[in-house]
Amino acid sequence: MRPDISVLIRTLKREKAAYVPLVELGIHPLIKEKFLGRPILSLEDEIAFWYRAGYDYVKLQPGVTFNLSDDKKDSTFQKKLDGALAYNWANEGQGIVTSFEDLEKLRLPGKEEIDYSNFERVTSLLPEGMGVIGQYGDIFTMTWELMGFEGFSLALFENPDLIKELNNRLGELVLSMFEFMAQHDAVDILWFSDDIAFSTGLLMSPDVLRQYFFPWLKRIGELAQAYGKPLIYHTDGVLWDVFEDIIACGVDALHPIEPKAMDLAEVKQKYGQRLCLIGGVDVDLLARGTPQEVEAQVKRNIEIAAYNGGYCAGSGNSIPDYIKYENYLALIEAAKKYGE
Which residues belong to any copy of the Uroporphyrinogen decarboxylase (URO-D) domain (predicted)? Predict the structure, then answer.
């Protein structure tokens, strides 16, 4: 089957399309290399993987380096470069920004340092019918990770101006990336990723998110609407308390409907008329289950969520290197088998 970016776009708009598209935010390079049979060394290799695996798009990110380590502090901050595939743990205590003095020493990349060269090259390399998703994220995540979870939590009461200033600097930088991607002719779809929840609840209260997260998501949503490009939003976890906030920001599709956090059928029933749903195949099942179990889960998800459009098949988070390779193959083959 040849790629058709229009099928994915129609699905994200909750329209019935010719087939159920495959969608992933992140696939570990080792999985890609095993599938492709060679190392992923170039944009051409990246496109070749997504094309051969059956996706309608290649995902591109602006090239930017966040060199934010500070040997004097116990910080484990590391910017995630491929959609939630980093293994480092977030700092639970104090981060590298605990005061305005620390903030002034912080060296964030400048907008002029961001590399968009792959966006300029990609059109001439794409197979016919294939499109581009422009993706970045983590405004809120970088804010609290740079301060440490404890430090951020205390600052909510003791130093909210520090949070606001750091959040604004990070937000304006990431927003500039979406301004570029929204206006670029090569980009068909925008994808913002920023985790605000875990499997049992929100990371922080809705009020905190409404102050430091949702205003940025809304600005990105307004960009997407202004340039006529669907917006996907990624966050793990339980989202019942903020679904209306997410929708109000102009989000078209929600990823990844983590199975241990929310039931796909319930989300479809409550919000499927206003959100396209993406994912829902448990990563634990991909890691420990059998290909037959994976196939059954994909089939069930399609039956539950794709009957009237508005569903894309994929994992309930990402495709890490520790899953069984044969289970990843089972996922993509089952999506093609049952999604037509």
Answer: 97-338
Quote the tokens at residue 198: 């875990």
Which amino acid appears at position 37 of this protein? G
CATH number (domain holding residue 24): 3.20.20.210
DSSP per residue, 15-47: ---SS--B--S-B-HHHHHHHHTS---SHHHHH
* 3-state DSSP assignment of residue 218: helix
pTM of the model: 0.94
Instruction: List the domain range (segments joined by +) for residue 308.
Output: 5-338
Q: Residue 164 burial by CB count (10 A; 0-12/13-18/19+): exposed, middle or buried?
A: middle
Residue-by-residue DSSP string for 132-184: EEEEEE-HHHHHHHHH-HHHHHHHHHH-HHHHHHHHHHHHHHHHHHHHHHHH-
Q: Which residue has the tokens 């979870």?
A: 149
Angle among Cα 314, 191, 41 to the nearest 5 degrees reads 75
Query: What single-letter amino acid sits at 334?
Result: A
Q: Is the pLDDT of residue 78 over 70?
A: no
- 């190392």: which residue's tokens? 39
What is the number of domains present in the chain?
1
Measured between its terminal Cα atoms, the distance across the chain in Å is 11
pLDDT digits (tens, 9 = 90+) for 268-290: 999 999 999 999 999 999 999 99
Angle at the Cα of 115 from the Cα atoms of 60 and 53, rounded to 5 degrees: 20
Do the Cβ atoms of 214 and 167 come closer than 8 Å?
Answer: no
What's the CA gap between 118 and 63, in Å, rounded?
9
